[in-house]
Amino acid sequence: MSHVFHRSLTQDYPTAIKGEGPYLIDDQGRRYLDACGGAAVSCLGHSDTAVTEAIREQVGKVAYAHTAFFTTEPMEALADFLVERAPAGLESVYFVSGGSEAMEAALKLARQYFIEIGQPRRRHLIARRQSYHGNTLGALATGGNAWRRQQFEPLLIDVSHVSPCYAYRGLQEGETPEAYAVRLADELEAEILHLGAENVMAFVAEPVVGATMGAVPAVPGYFKRVREVCDRHGILLILDEVMCGMGRTGTLFAAEQEGITADLITIAKGLGAGYQPIGATLVSRRIRDAIASGSGFFQHGHTYIGHATACAAALAVQTTIQQRDLLPRVCELGEGLQRRLTERFGEHPHIGDIRGRGLFQGLELVADRATKTAFDPERKVNARVKQAAMQAGLMCYPMGGTIDGRLGDHILLAPPFILEESHLDEIVDKLDIALRSAL
Ligand code: PLP
Fold this sequence. Notes:
single chain; 439 residues; alpha/beta; Aspartate Aminotransferase, domain 1; Aspartate Aminotransferase, domain 2; seven-stranded mixed β-sheet; four-stranded mixed β-sheet; 14 helices; 17 strands; globular; binds pyridoxal-5'-phosphate
């Protein structure tokens, strides 16, 4: 018996012993095409030599220096790299070890900002239903995914949840996407007024929703309107780009495609591409300045913030993506993947929707295409698809979301940016085999 407290205590896991570009290989020699980057993490595949070398070099110099005592070269250089490319106004970076920590830092920065500027009543958060922002208690409370929250409700702070922007299920008959965006922004504003704007600190959203909905971008104009609503009421906008950021949708930040900026943006996953655990919160100048000219100290921290080796790895990942000009490739490959998925599964009786941006694509699984009825959760469709895909030598990320209190299912694809066209065919062929066997 394994002494590891695995995620599932009823399942056996193959042992991964080697990575080779977009493939992981187990101890039986079986090869798995990583079409989901684990969880949208491994954007450079599994054996990048430049990143490996950068890690080796940094460990040989200084692996770790506590940030209460020192700054380090890779941390400073990575912050410079990100700020040079970030949406306007985001001018400093708080480094952590992953996405949930990045969200916790964002929530606390928002709260401390309002204390520093003399608005201590602002403590209320608004997020969206069916969202996921991490598993630590603050981040979990922010997320609106009922299934993930359920057992822990008594431990969670009170957060309001408004409707997500989810055209496949939310767009009403005869409604234009523009009208839908207005309706959702109005709903947000109504919630702010209901709570009293003077009590609200931030609205939190993922520009392209990953884990809980399966690569769902907002309708055009939605985020512009949300930004306007936040500004009208002095509320901070926190964009969670933990999954959709760092080039995954074809631009370094997903917010770029919405034509907006945010007060805080969280990133992780693709930042270090799995070579080291790292996340970050990008902080606007006004928040940084308020704290700098107030208490001068952010009342939050972890032992491993700004870990030198993790920063060196992330810097190597990001410079490799830039030097190899991989972001235009993400757009090209993403179009190729979506086209292939649509050709193969566009008429599939159990695939209701195919959507996404760049190498972040989702398929929504339904029991009935015409009525969009979700599968009975008892059928555990997502678990069956995952298992069948692994048997076919494919890693994909099937998840159940919460649709009107029920579980629905989707498959998320988030492969590495280094794929060849032939890998796209392999993904679709293997997914086809998995779906035939699982559904
Ligand atoms: N935010 C989003 C949008 C995520 O998808 C995730 C993880 O899947 C997180 C936050 C939490 O990140 P982590 O698992 O690195 O803590």
